[in-house]
């Protein structure tokens, strides 16, 4: 048995983590914010710390820095709970001596318990003769944990209703009024849903929710970036989360972001690279083309889940590429997004007539583009491949 301190501000997530850690034989103390976490660190004298990075007041990075000023990674293991799409904080935590990282959207009960055992064994953190960690089995828990699944079923409908209400408030808000507070509450709910979905093995829901949370957190940190387009992205994504709660993959391998094939077309190398990197940051698989004719060859030769087109390109522009794409039977319904600096009424009209699904004006945040693409892809999957999904909410 080991003494574990958990610093996690989300109530349901903290309760579930504590329940499973105690069930595995560990002694657990839980703090819901950074200040009380530092106090319990002195009082409880844990063998290992589970530390959420996103905390009110004193955040996880500040706590990690304070601890590492006096205690080395070998002496005291610290496992970071983080978000898939937050590489800056992850790099900072790694530089400060974090022992391991658990992505909340991917943290099932077996993965949580396995990471703790590995960290304790690596750091030799248990005190000789006083506490023994349990043996690591081939599987530290059932594929779907019934307690986590019940908590997910019980709380998610109310949280989804609240998210929908907040999105309507966001749409109706005047610039600068109530927007930061509304976004902060949306981010808090998404943060909670991501962790609960992962523990319930609702993998697709957790992955998508994590991406949306990252977008909302980005808008919270930089409210000047909030505009009609970003609000529309959040609103559509929240609507899709409601559908995914009702219709969820049959198993973890049923739907995986890495299975999606995205064609990115732009004659500007910098824009092409930027858009590709944004999509890859959420695990999407990208194919690149720098002109319309090459794009058409790719379109005619393979299945694609989504196509991103620039409007202005030499020889064959994006409008013509989209028109010809729609003549291909396999791509009659494939989502097509135009990303352009010419987001005029005339351009929107031409793109719609060519068969596009959406148009996004430049400049656009990378995570905004990624969430918009995922929303289109998953919405189409729900409509065209319902047999790959089964109810999760019943």
Would you list the SSEs in sequence order as H and E? Answer: EHEHEHEHEHHHHHEEHEHEHEHEHE
From the 3D coordinates, which CATH architecture of the largest domain would you assign? Answer: 3-Layer(aba) Sandwich
Shape: elongated
CATH C-level category of the largest domain: Alpha Beta
Structural class: alpha/beta
Question: Uncertain runs with pLDDT below 50, 5 residues or more?
Answer: 125-142, 249-253
| Tally of discrete structural domains | 3
Percentage of β-strand residues: 5-15%
Radius of gyration: 23 Å
Topology of this structure?
Layout: E1 3-7, H1 11-23, E2 27-31, H2 34-44, E3 48-52, H3 60-68, E4 78-82, H4 87-95, E5 100-103, H5 109-123, H6 146-172, H7 179-199, H8 203-221, H9 228-246, E6 247-249, E7 261-265, H10 269-280, E8 285-289, H11 292-301, E9 306-309, H12 318-325, E10 336-340, H13 345-354, E11 358-361, H14 366-384, E12 389-391
Parallel strand pairs: 1-2, 1-3, 3-4, 4-5, 7-8, 7-9, 9-10, 10-11
Antiparallel strand pairs: 6-12
Helix pairs in contact: 1-7, 6-7, 6-9, 7-8, 8-9, 8-14, 9-14, 10-14, 11-12, 12-13
